[in-house]
């Protein structure tokens, strides 16, 4: 009986070790980092957020770390100690950018502010403030602190910070959406990201592939 028990335990060891190895791989693998430098009214940015970034986040957010920087091709001018901004798609875009920057600050958690920004981007052509208020109501968000921020010096400084982040990129940003994957921007990566971000994230991830990932070599996950 003792011999049988020893063999049974020893026979189970490979399975136990494999399970531990898989768990360790899952824990140890860093999330895939996607940094998006964008403009609130840019049609290509909106398309990327709505059709690529949001679905990827919904399906594999456990392996995905996203940073949003709303500035893009805007320009900044400092006069008399204060900053003013000019945006590619006009004043409404500048307003949308600052609303989203304030939402990021005050909603704090990505799982709170990204669904909100996604909603705003879906509706922003109706007007940034209208979209901001409608989405806040829909998601039971207190809009007051976001709008106070967006209409004051605090919002201006948040956009100044976004401007500095954008200007510090290497290589330099010159179009939007500007996508950085794990700290690197390339044209080929951007082309893939804007057409199939989910697959790109899954193929980049070094840990156990989530079951929500698309097939690779005929195998799911």
Automatic annotation (TrEMBL):
It holds the Pfam family GILT. Keywords: Glycoprotein, Secreted, Signal. One of its GO terms (molecular function) is oxidoreductase activity, acting on a sulfur group of donors, disulfide as acceptor. One of its GO terms (cellular component) is extracellular region. InterPro entries: Interferon-induced_GILT, Thioredoxin-like_sf. Residues 1-19 form the signal peptide. Belongs to the GILT family. This is Gamma-interferon-inducible lysosomal thiol reductase. It comes from Patella caerulea.
């Amino acid at each position: 009986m003792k011999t049988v028990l020893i063999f049974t335990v020893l026979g189970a060891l490979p399975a136990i070790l494999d399970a531990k190895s898989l768990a360790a791989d899952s824990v140890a693998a860093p999330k895939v980092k996607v940094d998006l430098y964008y403009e609130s009214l840019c049609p290509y940015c909106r398309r990327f957020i709505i059709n690529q970034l949001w679905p990827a986040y919904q399906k594999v957010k456990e392996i995905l770390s996203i940073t949003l920087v709303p500035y893009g091709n805007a320009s900044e001018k400092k006069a008399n100690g204060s900053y003013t901004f000019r945006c590619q798609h006009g004043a409404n875009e500048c307003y949308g950018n600052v609303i989203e920057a304030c939402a990021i600050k005050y909603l704090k958690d990505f799982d709170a502010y990204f669904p909100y920004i996604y909603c705003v981007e879906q509706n922003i052509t109706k007007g940034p403030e209208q979209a901001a208020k409608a989405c806040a109501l829909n998601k039971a968000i207190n809009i007051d602190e976001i709008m106070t921020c967006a209409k004051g010096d605090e919002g201006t400084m948040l956009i100044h910070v976004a401007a500095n982040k954008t200007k510090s990129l290497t290589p330099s940003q010159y179009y939007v959406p500007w996508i950085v994957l794990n700290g690197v921007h390339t044209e080929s990566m951007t082309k893939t990201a804007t057409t199939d971000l989910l697959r790109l994230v899954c193929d980049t991830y070094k840990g156990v592939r989530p079951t929500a990932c698309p097939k690779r070599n005929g195998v799911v996950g």
